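Appendix C: a fully annotated inverse folding record. The material below is reproduced so that readers can follow the format used throughout the book. The structure is listed first as tokens, followed by the designed sequence.
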């Protein structure tokens, strides 16, 4: 395993990668080979959780804060839960999901784990032909394939449930523990919703959802049911999954005395972006007479 970590202030990122020992074979493994493979991934997950636990102990600033009770509780209890889960890991996807389970438990957006290289056996993103996003407090269809083997809901339809389970419950129980547990945030709910109809090797769950049926409400109020057919994501359909472009960074007076600050990026990556960021900050400094300043 090759890992790199960067820590500073409240930032801790962990890169994770693995290489298959046998290079990956297409032949179906024997029961004994399957058992050995499962044991290898379980051992890998356990070792990685131990190493990650130590890295957080050495690098995370909350370790030194006795008032960070939630952090210290998860540092102990979460470690035990993650180790128990690691002991059950039988595949590369589950081993990686175990690491994400442990990091998301800290509920710290600056602590994350991601793949450093492609998986030993490349796995393509698959999807159900349509995408879901959180919009104005509702889960709505945000894109769909031009053609699909089965009927798909129209863009804008509200997604009510899948397999009889309300969307919030489904995401909180099955997705959030391996992606992001800050489910009280609308942005998090939108990120989690992508997993309803998409499976990505870069963000595996412990067990793929692979939903079979979802219920929606059309613009006319009609309740509709759709069976889901899963296929590899083609380049021509990738635009259906494209996220909306973030608003342009800057300041706008939405009405007299009210300034709206769109600060969508706190990490400018170029001189031009830095100049725009500084310009926005200067505008905020000059808003002293404003009745209200909204930071978005």
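Designed amino acids, in order:
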């Amino acid at each position: 395993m090759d890992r790199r970590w960067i820590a500073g202030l409240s930032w801790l990122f962990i890169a994770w990668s693995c290489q298959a020992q046998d290079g990956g074979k297409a032949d179906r493994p024997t029961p004994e080979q399957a058992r050995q493979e499962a044991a290898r991934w379980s051992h890998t997950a356990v070792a990685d959780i131990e190493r990650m636990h130590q890295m957080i102990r050495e690098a995370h600033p909350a370790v030194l804060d006795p008032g960070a009770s939630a952090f210290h509780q998860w540092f102990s209890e979460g470690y035990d839960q993650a180790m128990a889960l690691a002991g059950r890991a039988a595949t590369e996807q589950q081993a990686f999901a175990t690491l994400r389970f442990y990091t998301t438990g800290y509920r710290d957006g600056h602590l994350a784990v991601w793949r450093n290289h492609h998986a030993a056996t490349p796995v393509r993103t698959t999807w159900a032909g349509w995408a879901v996003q959180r919009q104005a407090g509702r889960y709505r269809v945000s894109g769909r394939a031009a053609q699909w083997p089965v009927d798909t809901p129209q863009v804008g339809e509200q997604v009510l449930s899948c397999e009889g389970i309300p969307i919030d419950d489904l995401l909180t129980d099955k997705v959030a523990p391996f992606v992001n547990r800050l489910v009280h945030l609308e942005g998090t709910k939108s990120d989690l919703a992508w997993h309803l109809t998409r499976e990505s090797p870069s963000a595996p769950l412990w067990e793929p959802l692979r939903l079979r049926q979802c219920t929606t409400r059309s613009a006319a109020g009609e309740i509709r049911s759709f069976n889901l057919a899963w296929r590899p994501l083609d380049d021509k359909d990738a635009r259906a999954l494209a996220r909306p472009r973030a608003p342009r960074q800057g300041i706008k007076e939405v009405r007299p005395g009210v300034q709206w600050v769109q600060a969508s990026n706190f990490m400018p990556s170029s001189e031009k972006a830095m100049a725009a960021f500084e310009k926005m900050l200067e505008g905020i400094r000059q808003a002293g007479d404003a009745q209200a300043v909204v930071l978005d």
